[in-house]
């Protein structure tokens, strides 16, 4: 299966620059969030196994890259771990005369990770923000060893970079990222860097968590701390750094010759079978509120 995923991603690199006409005449092309790329690849593999006449090409590059490709007419679906910016929506409206359509396909608990040897296992959101803003620079300031903190984060084209900046760093520290933060290409790179750095700290999608790093429990009030792996806390909305994982497409693509194929795949992603794959990929299935949002804002407009 891994070889198939690699093949699909490599094929996407070759084809992602194709013209809009080619996109319409061939398979489904999906590009964007590196957080979502493996999960969506798993979903695509399962769907193609059930529908051998359907071709789905999935690639990453970051949410911003995927949204740009959708704006340019190069793909059918953009994976995004953040919401579209108003300026991006306006570009689509100006170019295509219609607003993009958004569907929620999974939930992610953005996870703050440290090296397993680090004694720090809990932080408040404010402490996390001040660490990544460069206000807290030594682990002893948060109950750890007397050692400088090394910051690992994503590149600016990443939706995870944008989400963590807006909803954690700017919200709780009132400023941007520290200039000392090392910007890495993906979740795997951050995880690997922190696993080999006793003083490192980073943020990754929960689906990329393994025993090479330690997830930090997070609190808003400094009293109640929650793990991103605590299903009950997630379902009750108590984990503080929660986000939706979504996809964007255009209404005219769903009315095109391959519109039924695109809708079929989207339905599969949010079906019971598709959500099992989401969970197997390390992420959380969509909540009841997400299904209601999808029905009102997506399915009611395309069926």
Task: Please provide a written account of the structure.
The protein is an alpha/beta fold. The chain folds into 2 domains: 163 residues, Periplasmic binding protein-like II (D-Maltodextrin-Binding Protein, domain 2, 3-Layer(aba) Sandwich); 125 residues, D-Maltodextrin-Binding Protein, domain 2, CATH 3.40.190.10. The protein is built from 13 helices and 13 strands. The longest helix has 15 residues.
Structure in a nutshell:
This protein has helices at residues 2-15, 20-25, 37-50, 63-71, 86-96, 125-133, 159-173, 187-195, 231-235, 251-254, 259-270, 272-280, 288-302; strands spanning 28-32, 56-59, 77-80, 101-109, 111-114, 122-124, 150-154, 182-184, 200-204, 214-215, 217-219, 225-226, 242-249.
Which keywords apply here?
D-Maltodextrin-Binding Protein, domain 2; 303 residues; alpha/beta
| Shape annotation | elongated
Tally of contiguous helical segments = 13
Radius of gyration: 20 Å
CATH architecture of the largest domain: 3-Layer(aba) Sandwich
Q: How is the largest sheet built, in terms of strand order? A: 2-1-3-13-4
Give the SSE layout.
Elements: H1 2-15, H2 20-25, E1 28-32, H3 37-50, E2 56-59, H4 63-71, E3 77-80, H5 86-96, E4 101-109, E5 111-114, E6 122-124, H6 125-133, E7 150-154, H7 159-173, E8 182-184, H8 187-195, E9 200-204, E10 214-215, E11 217-219, E12 225-226, H9 231-235, E13 242-249, H10 251-254, H11 259-270, H12 272-280, H13 288-302
Helix pairs in contact: 4-5, 6-7, 11-12
């Amino acid at each position: 299966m891994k070889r198939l995923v690699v093949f699909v991603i490599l094929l996407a690199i070759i084809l992602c620059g194709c013209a809009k006409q080619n996109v319409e005449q061939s398979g489904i092309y999906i590009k964007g969030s590196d957080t979502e790329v493996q999960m969506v690849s798993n979903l695509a593999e399962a769907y193609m196994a059930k529908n051998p006449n359907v071709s789905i090409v999935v690639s990453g590059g970051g949410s911003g890259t995927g949204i740009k490709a959708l704006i340019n007419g190069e793909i059918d679906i953009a994976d995004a771990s953040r919401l579209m910016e108003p300026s991006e929506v306006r570009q689509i409206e100006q170019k295509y005369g219609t607003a993009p359509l958004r569907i929620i396909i999974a939930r992610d608990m953005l996870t703050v990770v440290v090296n397993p040897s680090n004694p720090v296992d809990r932080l408040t959101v404010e402490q996390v923000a001040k660490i990544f803003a460069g206000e807290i620079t030594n682990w002893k300031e948060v109950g750890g060893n007397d050692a400088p903190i090394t910051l690992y984060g994503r590149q600016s084209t990443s939706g995870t970079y944008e989400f963590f900046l807006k909803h954690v760093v700017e919200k709780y520290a009132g400023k941007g990222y520290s200039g000392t933060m090392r910007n890495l290409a993906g979740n795997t790179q951050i995880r690997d860097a922190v696993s080999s750095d006793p003083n490192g700290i980073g943020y990754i999608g929960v689906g990329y968590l393994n025993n090479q790093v330690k997830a930090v429990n997070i609190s808003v009030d400094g009293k109640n701390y929650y793990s991103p792996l605590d299903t009950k806390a997630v379902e009750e909305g108590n984990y503080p750094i929660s986000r939706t994982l979504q996809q964007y497409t255009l209404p005219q693509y769903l009315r095109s010759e391959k519109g039924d194929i695109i809708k079929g795949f989207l339905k599969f992603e949010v079906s019971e079978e598709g959500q099992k794959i989401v969970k197997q990929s390390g992420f959380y299935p969509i909540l009841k509120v997400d299904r209601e949002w999808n029905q009102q804002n997506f399915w009611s407009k395309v069926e």
